[in-house]
Design brief:
168 residues, mainly alpha
């Protein structure tokens, strides 16, 4: 008792809230990457997903690791120190990955590739919109699951996001 480690498992409600924050941060990161990201950095983002292009079915575990690398690299490209500090102190990106993949690789691969293309074209508004759409779909899926469970009388602050999404 009162010893050892305690691992916080985010609730479904908390995960939906985290994705709302992540959405804002990723839109900003996409803006910075489109404006200031080097060609080499954008090439590196593209190389992360190259092994999955034209592959079916996509290995979910391998894709999950690459998805995390992609989003971390996108944050690294952002030259906004305050945004990076907010993410690091609140661990927003890490916490949203806690539940694993919330959408299939087949669903998100093209979203990632389109965002990379917008970065390559230095199209700031398109990159921002694609970053928003990418996280918005997941956030809405989480919010819908949260709402459905609330309507059934389930306290979603006590159910883990991972177990809820597995069941829905």
């Amino acid at each position: 008792p009162n010893r050892g480690f305690c691992i916080h498992v985010p609730s479904l409600r908390e995960m939906a809230e985290l994705f709302a924050l992540r959405e804002s941060l990723e839109i900003t990161a996409a803006c910075y990457a489109a404006e200031f990201g080097s060609k080499e950095s954008i090439d590196e983002l593209e190389s992360i997903f190259a092994p999955f292009v034209g592959v079916s079915p996509i290995d979910k575990e391998a894709y999950y690791e690459c998805d995390k690398r992609f989003h971390r690299k996108l944050f690294d490209l952002c030259d906004n120190q305050l945004m990076r500090q907010i993410n690091e102190s609140m661990r927003i990106l890490d916490r949203t990955f806690f539940a694993g993949l919330l959408r299939t690789p087949e669903e998100t691969l093209n979203e990632h590739l389109a965002l990379i293309q917008a970065l390559r074209e230095r199209n700031v508004s398109r990159a921002q919109e694609l970053a928003r759409l990418h996280t918005d779909v997941t956030r809405k899926k989480l919010q819908a699951a949260n709402q459905s469970l609330c309507e059934l009388g389930v306290d979603t602050s006590s159910i883990s996001a991972y177990s809820a999404m597995e069941r829905l």
